[in-house]
């Protein structure tokens, strides 16, 4: 590929504006510009499980400055029905979604019950406090163990609290495990965590009665999805609704779920009251009423030979999807399929149950089921190595899919409903790279030197494969202005990934224009009404490919028009520095702006430039100014829809030190080797990795959602929900890249956005286990939990040993 911008480290064009405080977020919308803006607040359930006997709003209705109060009884038609089950699946036999406002029953602390609109947020919140709700309390089901026991039910019509059961298998794993020379069993747990972006959810809506149009601004990862939901629920035509996504202060998955109740209630209120309405979520609301993820419990049975090769792998796990299941089975399906990583067990069976609990709903969180799968597979690899007394890297290498085996068909179905076929990769080379980067072969010398000083060091390694670029499609529109500037629109949204930079790089290459002359807009349904959204590491693969195709279409028209105007063959033209030039003829050229003028034959001349494009000055008088197969303007529009997902991969390694007294974990070195196919902008990819590693450190060592038995979230604030500070994240992360291009898209791209976070729990569990000498089977792990593990291990009879027990 011959390019000028592709593969170049270009500074992000977004940064100066954002770093200078010039970002424009949902809460900034309408400030000083929308006269009469009203503000909303939500009454949320303080109980995890209860029937609603009565809701008394009498004390609110006469409060000066309160304009409206809604409960479920006030909703009608589609608004009174449950929120959509976004991704149905045959295995989701008991899918359940909540109402915009609770009807009859609440099923988690934080569920919306009433919606108040007032002159300002302070008054709205005061009014919410005046609402009186009478409850009939019900037993709460909290955690996977309680859900499986099914002593109590979250939903009366869901037997055993089981929303779904799914089984996929290749070969006969139970028989292969039973016949294997070596067998192990492991029980592994990952607890709940959450996205917790800097900006919570927020929505603003304005109804224009003159045009019968609704404008909605919302902090979302899918503006087109919100548009469709609002139109459907409010009984509007799709063309009556515009959804605009301004700057988004982080999403990480929580903002891909839609519609949130407020995304419907705010437009409803704006239309009913005839005034703009705003809702901005506060931090506690985000903890108790948005979404969580991660919580799973796994049981693994594995059989292997003397070299550590997998002969059979049998996995059963239980997934906590909270009180409702609006996002279907995406997370556990990803876990069940991505658990395989870069390996190829001869026989694999995976079964899971997705369970209801009286806790906040579960939707994807950066990694989306992959961190759990990676953790389980990599803990299994470490257990095999420990059992055989082999090097952990050697056991992994014995199980790798080889470079000449791609495309590799796992004979399973991935989250997109397509075959789980890896498109490309080179795992053996990647392993050698990560070993060199972290000093794997020399670590025992480093450990011994530290031990001589009374220090405990451990090293961990984790490998993963990440399905990226899931469909069904994304589109793009590229428009070359008469000024020569290029306007690009794509429907997916941005949450800080650098889309405006990388997409401009792609267009600059195709059209031969200066990078600075390309303007990119994302997440605005007025500019691109058909799109899917930003999630699953899909932006570069999906929108990047669509933008490349659309720019190529625009280029074809540029060459066709310029060739006619310059009286040259299209093959003799080149696009350089915003001009179309005849190769080898320096004086024969025209600017892209001039080509744009010529592309739009006019009846009227508005300025000097347009004089050359009137009906009397353009083209052959013997043919129409606009051909039958053409249209005015210098534009290109295209869509990219892949046959299946691409599969990125990576390996992380870490060296940690565990304090012998306090049990604190200090990260001495962190190394990453990453393969996302061809790299558009290495600086942005590395930034994504750095951010993901920081987030992964939080998930492995600090962050968890702690519920009590009654379903109360005990750490719903940043005072109690622990996160890593800059002092807990390594100053430098050693990064190396491997590029095995995907054959599935025109640019050879794979996704990169979630890579940094996927193997974190696995790599830290391995490193801590290596430092301490006993198994680590539950994550995240805090100093107090490590201290307790030490105590338990010290009290074990020496004959038991730290390694998992082999079955007879």
From TrEMBL:
The keyword Kinase does not apply. The keyword Oxidoreductase applies. Residues 20-139 form the Aldehyde oxidase/xanthine dehydrogenase a/b hammerhead domain. Residues 614-634, 787-808 are annotated as: Disordered. Keywords: Molybdenum, Oxidoreductase. PANTHER family: ALDEHYDE OXIDASE 1-RELATED (PTHR11908:SF132), XANTHINE DEHYDROGENASE (PTHR11908). This is Xanthine dehydrogenase family protein.
């Amino acid at each position: 590929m011959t390019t000028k911008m592709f593969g170049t480290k270009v500074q992000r064009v977004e940064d100066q504006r954002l770093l200078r405080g010039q970002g424009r977020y949902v809460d900034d919308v309408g400030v000083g510009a929308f006269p009469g803006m009203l503000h909303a607040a939500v009454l949320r359930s303080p109980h995890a499980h209860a029937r609603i006997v009565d809701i008394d709003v009498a004390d609110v209705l006469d409060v000066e400055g309160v304009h409206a109060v809604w409960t479920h009884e006030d909703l009608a038609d589609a608004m009174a029905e449950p929120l959509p089950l976004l991704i149905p699946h045959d295995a989701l036999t008991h899918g359940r979604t909540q109402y915009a406002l609770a009807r009859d029953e609440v099923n988690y602390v934080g569920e919306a019950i009433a919606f108040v609109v007032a002159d300002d947020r302070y008054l709205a919140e005061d009014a919410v406090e005046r609402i009186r709700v009478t409850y009939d309390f019900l037993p709460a089901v909290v955690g996977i163990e309680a859900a499986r026991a099914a002593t109590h039910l979250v939903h009366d019509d869901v037997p055993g609290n089981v929303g779904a059961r799914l089984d996929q298998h290749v070969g006969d794993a139970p028989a292969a495990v039973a016949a294997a020379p070596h067998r192990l069993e492991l029980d592994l747990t990952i607890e709940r965590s959450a996205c917790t972006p800097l900006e919570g959810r927020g929505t603003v809506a304005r109804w224009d009665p003159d045009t019968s149009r609704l404008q909605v601004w919302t902090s979302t990862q899918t503006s087109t999805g919100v548009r469709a939901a609002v139109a459907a629920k409010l009984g509007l035509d799709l063309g009556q609704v515009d959804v605009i996504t301004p700057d988004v202060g982080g999403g990480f998955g929580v903002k891909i779920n839609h519609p949130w109740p407020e995304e419907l209630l705010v437009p409803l209120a704006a239309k009913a009251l005839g005034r703009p309405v705003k809702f901005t979520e506060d931090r506690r609301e985000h903890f108790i009423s948005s979404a969580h993820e991660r919580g799973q419990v796994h049981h693994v049975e594995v059989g292997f030979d003397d070299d550590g090769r997998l002969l059979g792998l049998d996995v059963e796990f239980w997934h906590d999807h909270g009180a409702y299941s609006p996002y279907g089975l995406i997370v556990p399906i990803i876990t069940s399929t991505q658990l395989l990583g870069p390996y190829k067990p001869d026989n694999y069976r995976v079964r899971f149950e997705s369970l209801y609990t009286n806790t906040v709903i579960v939707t994807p969180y950066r990694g989306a089921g992959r961190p759990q799968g990676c953790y389980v597979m990599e803990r299994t690899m470490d257990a095999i190595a420990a059992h055989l007394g082999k090097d952990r890297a050697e056991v992994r290498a014995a199980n790798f899919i080889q470079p000449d085996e791609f495309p590799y068909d796992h004979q399973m179905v991935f989250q997109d409903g397509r075959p789980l076929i890896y498109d490309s990769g080179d795992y053996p080379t990647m392993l050698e790279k990560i070993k060199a980067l972290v000093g794997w072969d020399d670590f025992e010398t480093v450990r011994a030197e530290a031990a001589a000083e009374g220090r405990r060091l451990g090293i961990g390694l984790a490998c993963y494969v990440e399905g990226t670029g899931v469909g069904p499609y994304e589109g793009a529109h590229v428009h070359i202005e008469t000024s020569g500037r290029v306007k690009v629109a794509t429907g997916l949204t941005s949450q800080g990934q650098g889309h405006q930079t990388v997409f401009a790089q792609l267009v600059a290459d195709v059209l031969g224009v200066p990078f600075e002359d390309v303007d990119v807009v994302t997440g605005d349904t007025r500019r691109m009404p058909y799109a899917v959204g930003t999630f699953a590491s899909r932006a570069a693969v999906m929108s990047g490919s669509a933008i490349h195709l659309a720019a190529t279409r625009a280029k074809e028209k540029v060459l066709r028009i310029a060739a006619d105007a310059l009286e040259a063959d299209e093959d003799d033209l080149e696009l350089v520095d915003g001009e179309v030039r005849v190769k080898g003829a320096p004086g024969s050229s025209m600017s892209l702006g001039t080509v744009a003028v010529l592309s739009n034959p006019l009846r009227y001349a508005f300025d000097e430039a347009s004089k050359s494009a009137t009906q009397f000055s353009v083209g052959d008088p013997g043919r129409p100014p606009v051909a039958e197969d053409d249209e005015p303007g210098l534009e290109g529009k295209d869509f990219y829809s892949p046959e299946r997902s691409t599969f990125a991969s990576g390996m992380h390694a870490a060296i940690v030190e565990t304090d012998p007294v306090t049990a604190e974990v200090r990260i001495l070195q962190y190394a990453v080797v990453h393969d996302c196919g061809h790299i558009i902008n290495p600086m942005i990819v590395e930034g994504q990795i750095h951010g993901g590693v920081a987030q992964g450190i939080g998930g492995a060592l600090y962050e968890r959602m702690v519920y009590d038995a009654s379903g109360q979230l005990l750490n719903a604030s940043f005072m109690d929900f622990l996160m890593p500070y800059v002092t807990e994240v390594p100053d430098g992360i050693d990064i190396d890249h491997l590029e095995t291009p995907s054959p599935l898209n025109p640019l050879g791209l794979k996704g990169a956005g979630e890579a940094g976070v996927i193997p974190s729990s696995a790599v830290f569990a391995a490193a801590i286990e290596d430092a301490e000498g006993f198994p680590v089977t539950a994550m995240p792990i805090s100093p107090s939990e490590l201290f307790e593990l030490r105590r338990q291990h010290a009290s074990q009879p020496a004959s038991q040993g730290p390694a998992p027990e082999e079955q007879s």
